[in-house]
Specification:
With 206 residues, the chain is of the alpha/beta class. It has a single domain (2-203), classed as P-loop containing nucleotide triphosphate hydrolases (Rossmann fold), CATH 3.40.50.300. It is 61% helix and 12% strand. The protein has nine helices and five strands, in the order E-H-E-H-H-H-E-H-E-H-H-H-E-H. It has helices at 13-24, 31-41, 44-55, 61-72, 90-102, 117-133, 144-158, 161-167, 180-205, and strands spanning 2-6, 27-30, 81-84, 109-114, 171-175. The protein has a five-stranded parallel sheet with strand order 2-3-1-4-5, with helices on both faces. Helix 4 (61-72) packs parallel to helix 5 (90-102). It is globular. The chain starts with a strand and ends with a helix. The structure holds adenosine-5'-diphosphate (ADP). Adenosine-5'-diphosphate binds next to helix 2 and helix 3.
Length: 206
């Protein structure tokens, strides 16, 4: 199964991606986590990405597409992938389609987590407070000013991928304001449905 999770910062992609990965034995690929690991390791890629991340802007498409295409070729992605934070532009969505078509592993579902923008700022503040209390490091882009830019970037550059997938009949929306458990149940229902549909398509071809 290849699944894309889409939603603004703080929508719960990371939380849901982790649960889905554990439940279905899939690999969760968060481009944000991958980039932060590159920054922490001081690689060339990390150095290139740092200023984009810190300002809340997108890292250039070619950098991201190269990083993902190398990663999904690895063994641990064989049973399937949950893309969390990728694609984030229409060009990235097109590049993903091309990669998956070449691998004959089409997307099973594209799931949008819908949220109330005002709630996102509260969620972020809670997340930062919890991390501080736990003595954990705070992400360099988890401050109010950068969050406002991340939301603007989402609206302007990422939201256009919603009609891209909708036109292809792939987009399913889930209310990301519901509880973590309720969101998981709603996502699972979508996955069962898309799994059944793909099985029907396979048997129809026989
Ligand atoms: P969030 O969804 O909370 O904004 P992420 O951890 O997904 O955060 O991403 C953090 C930052 O990493 C983004 O603001 C951006 O700079 C960079 N980034 C992550 N994924 C991508 C992507 N697919 N394309 C371009 N930049 C990305």
């Amino acid at each position: 199964m290849m699944i894309v999770l889409i939603g603004p910062p703080g929508a719960g992609k990371g939380t849901q991606g982790k649960r889905l990965a554990e439940k279905h034995g899939l690999k969760q690929l968060s481009t944000g986590d991958m980039l932060r690991a590159e920054v922490a390791a001081g690689t060339d890629l990390g150095k290139k990405a740092q200023s984009f991340i810190d300002s809340g802007n997108l890292v250039p498409d070619d950098v991201i597409v190269d990083m993902i295409s190398g990663r999904i070729a690895q063994d641990d992605c064989r049973s399937g992938v949950i893309f969390d934070g990728f694609p984030r532009t229409v060009d990235q969505a097109k590049a993903l389609d091309k990669m998956l078509t070449e691998k004959k592993r089409p997307l099973s579902a594209v799931i949008e987590l819908t949220v109330d923008i005002k709630e996102l700022v509260n969620r972020l503040q809670t997340r930062v407070a919890q991390m501080k209390a736990a003595g954990q490091p705070i992400r360099t882009d988890d401050n109010e000013q950068t969050l406002i830019n991340r939301l603007k970037v989402y609206r302007e550059q990422t939201a256009p991928i919603l009609p891209y997938y909708k036109d292809r009949g792939m987009l399913k929306a889930v209310d990301g304001m519901a509880s973590i458990g309720e969101v998981s149940v709603a996502i699972d229902a979508i996955l069962v449905d898309s799994d059944l549909k793909s099985q029907c398509q396979v048997s129809g071809k026989r």
